[in-house]
Amino acid sequence: MPVLGYIAKRVFQAIFVVIVVTLFISFAIRLTGDPAVMMLRESANVTPEDLQRIREGLGLDRSFPVQYWEFISGLFTGNLGDSFFRGAIAPLVADALGATLLLAATSLVVSLIISIPLGVHAARHRGSLADQTIRILSLTGLSFPNFWLGIMLILIFSVTLGWLPASGFRGPASLIMPAVTIGVILTATNLRIVRTTMLDTLNQQFIMVARAKGLTERSVIYKHALRNSSIALVTYLGLQFGSLMGGLVVVELVFNWPGMGTLAVDAIAQRDYPILQTVISILAMMIVAVNLIVDLVYVALDPRIRLE
Amino acid sequence: MSALKSFEFVAGIFLIALIGGAVVLSPFLFPDGGTAQSLVDRLTPPFQAAQYPLGTDPLGRDILARVVVGGRISFFVGIVSAIGAVAIGTVIGLLAGYYRGVWDTFLMRFADIQLALPFILLAITVIAIIGPGLDRIILLMIVAQWVQYARLIRGSVLSLREAEYVQAAQSYGLRDRAILFRHILPNAMGPLVILGTLNVATNILLESSLTFLGLGIDPLTPSWGGMLADGRNYIQTAPWVTIFPGLAIMLTVLGLNLLGDWLRDRLDPLGRVT
Q1: How far is Cα B36 from Cα B39, in angstroms, rounded to an integer?
Q2: Which of A200, B79, B190, B267 qualifies as a FRET site for B54, CA 20 to 30 Å off?
Q3: Is A231 exposed, middle or buried (0-12, 13-18, 19+ CB in 10 A)?
Q4: Distance to chain A for B173, nearest Cα, Å
Q5: Residues of B with Cβ-Cβ distance to A239 under 8 angstroms
Q6: Is B121–A284 a contact, with Cβ atoms under 8 angstroms apart?
């Protein structure tokens, strides 16, 4: 069974990556200095006994492998321990993760609603004025610094027109500008992917057969061609998940969106490294998981794929 | 398509020549390096005073001068880190594709790991630990990007090493180094040039994001990301402080993307660079 072998190999690779990434982060965080000194850096008259008490409280008196194991098992059990300054980490991360995923999902939906019809149109009318305009628009979308686009939206829709709240999370209206900011960049990429994969599909024989059967053009495009190219689309979307998360970090900060990016950057400002370690590890694990799922779904959907 | 292609080329060259030219000539155009302050003229709106065509910032500094001078950092970081990543990626990609074995395993596992850590996250973690700085940003970008080039070159080498002309070179008894650098590399250059051009654009975006987050260039040096971070607090009263540096980033990146797209069609008809 080469398929089982492939799955086992792919799962093993994913676990390997997670171990290396979390080890790297845990180790690197420890290079920043003694957390006990950092926690008490603003207190006066610190005695060595105070420092020792804090080290024991944080479990820092134990060996690195023990601490690493606790951290990793905590990621799966939800027992994430305490931050330096903001209490238990688990509820902080849970809220932030929810906010980030809400923003990511909304942006993705926005971008698919725009990029699928436009991409399909560009592919059907390859070389037309519409195709060329779409191509230039997509290049322009890719060239926006996402945080600047966010600031410009705030300037137009909050400062000048007063239609939308500029920052924070106060109901669904708050979601619009951050989602559009991320959505513009995602759309620029997705447009190209939809166009390319549709072009590939439209040249295949089963499309000719569908047309020869006398199906309506609408049914040929949306039922046959689009469904077939959606496999490739899903793969590319999965591969983009990492850069989507990276882009979110900066955009969240512009809109003061209470997500993982804001949590991470605040943690850096306060030097609250347990939070930073957890946030980065969780994001990395999510990205690995998404890539793994995409690969496995790909094999399930298309048995012809070469297993290498 | 050819009308679009020539439009892409002309527009790309125009943008890069205009902005790049001004940046290169900035020591002559703005000898004070955009640092001269005139508090009387603070927050002058654009297009009002002949002396400050794009207005002034909260310290009365000329925005046009700062945008042009700030471009030095962006172009420097973008180009130097792309060259560094190309150099390292090319050597490792050649070795991995030609000799396979340990080099190949190392490269592919490193690529897996890199895929799981988006650059911005890696950068904020590392910079939080080692502190910000121009040299560190460049180093981080090289570390983060060499893998792409290595994978690209590896792919080309895998197919080229079976080519008849390479086998002929081997049978003549040519040394591996000569085969790799004189016969294989020149044929794998096209995609490398495209990816390099597009990556200068990505690097400019990344550097400005990091500087905007306060994790990049020293705030005292004029840079596009730094100007945006400063201007953010004045968005209600003086939006031009934020508009122009952002526009400079966008037009530069757009110019590079247009050129990269044009190069893609010229040098990479098989679509190896995605």
Answers
A1: 10
A2: B79
A3: middle
A4: 33
A5: 115
A6: yes
Chain CA centroid to CA A54, Å: 35
CA distances from B74 to B25, B60, B198, B216, B240 (A): 15, 23, 14, 11, 20
Q: Which among A21, A154, A243 is the nearest to B235, CB-wise?
A: A154
Shortest Cα distance, chain A CAs vs residue B182, angstroms = 30
Q: Which residue of A has its CA nearest to B121?
A: A246
Structural contact between residues A142 and A166, judged by C-beta atoms closer than 8 angstroms = no
| Residues in chain B where the model's pLDDT stays below 70 | 1-2, 115-116, 118, 269-274
> Is A15 part of the contact surface with chain B (CB cutoff 8 Å)?
no
CA distances from A53 to A36, A50, A198, A270, A308 (A): 9, 5, 63, 21, 53
| Minimal-distance CA residue of chain A relative to B244 | A148
Place of tokens 């093993």: A12
Q: Which residues of chain A fall short of a pLDDT of 50?
A: 308
Q: Residues B103-135: pLDDT tens digits?
A: 788 887 787 777 667 677 778 778 877 888 888
Instruction: Centre a 10 Å sphere on the Cβ of residue A134 and count the other Cβ atoms it contains.
Output: 21
pLDDT digits (tens, 9 = 90+) for B166-200: 888 888 888 888 888 888 888 888 888 888 888 99
- Taking only the tens place, the pLDDT of each residue in A21-54 is 888 888 887 776 677 777 777 677 778 888 887 7
Interface mutation vs chain B, best among A38, A134, A143, A154, most B CBs within 10 Å: A143
ipTM associated with this complex = 0.83
C-alpha to C-alpha distance for A234 and A252, rounded to whole angstroms: 25
